[in-house]
Amino acid sequence: MKICLACSAGGHLTELLQLEKAWQGKTHFFVSDYRGNAIGLSKKEKVVFVECPRRNPLKLAKNFLQGLTVLLREKPDVIISTGADTAIPICLLGKLFFKKIIFIESFCRVKGPSLSGKIMYKIADAFFVQWKQNLEFFPKAKFEGSVF
């Protein structure tokens, strides 16, 4: 099994790193944008850097093309993501390629859903929330507690 770990750099990557036991001992790689902790992670893990869209249509198109290239080259079986905008295109493309998608809603989303969560809830094979009150927005989600 090959696992793609897709997320934006910063807090989303910090959350995903808390789940290391999920991919430990399995072939894996990260997809993130070229910032802070993702750059540091690339010194010890395989990280593929993609454009961070930031609601810019041209950057989003570039991210989709980069995501397509990553999927065709790496051929992951499953994509695990904590969001946000950097990771959503590769997850959407992964679904088109019949990859399993696992999404974990952000820890900081206590009182309402994220835009990434709203999108991913519709396509994820498994969707997790870190706060019980988010089950109100995502009734089919699973609550397993916080990643921290």
In short:
With 148 residues, this protein is α/β, with parallel strands linked by helices.
Give your account of this protein's structure.
With 148 residues, this protein is an alpha/beta fold. It has a single domain, classed as Glycogen Phosphorylase B (Rossmann fold, 3-Layer(aba) Sandwich). It has five helices and seven strands; from the N terminus they run βαβαβαβαβαββ. A seven-stranded parallel sheet has the order 3-2-1-4-5-6-7.
What count of helical segments does DSSP give?
Answer: 5
| Shape, per Cα inertia axes | globular
CATH architecture: 3-Layer(aba) Sandwich
Tell me the structural class.
alpha/beta
Tally of individual domains: 1
Strand content: 15-25%
Order of helices and strands: EHEHEHEHEHEE
- Average pLDDT taken over every residue: 96
Which CATH C-level class is it? Alpha Beta
Poorly predicted regions are none
Report the CATH superfamily: Glycogen Phosphorylase B
Q: Please give the largest β-sheet.
A: 7 strands, parallel
User: Widest sheet: strand order?
Assistant: 3-2-1-4-5-6-7
Give a count of the beta strands, DSSP E runs of length 2 or more.
7
Task: Tell me the CATH topology.
Answer: Rossmann fold
Distance N terminus to C terminus? 26 Å
Helical fraction equals: 25-40%
Rg on CA atoms, Å: 14 Å
What is the fold's blueprint, element by element?
Blueprint: E1 2-7, H1 11-17, E2 27-32, H2 36-41, E3 47-49, H3 57-74, E4 78-83, H4 88-96, E5 100-104, H5 115-121, E6 126-129, E7 142-143
Parallel strand pairs: 1-2, 1-4, 2-3, 4-5, 5-6, 6-7
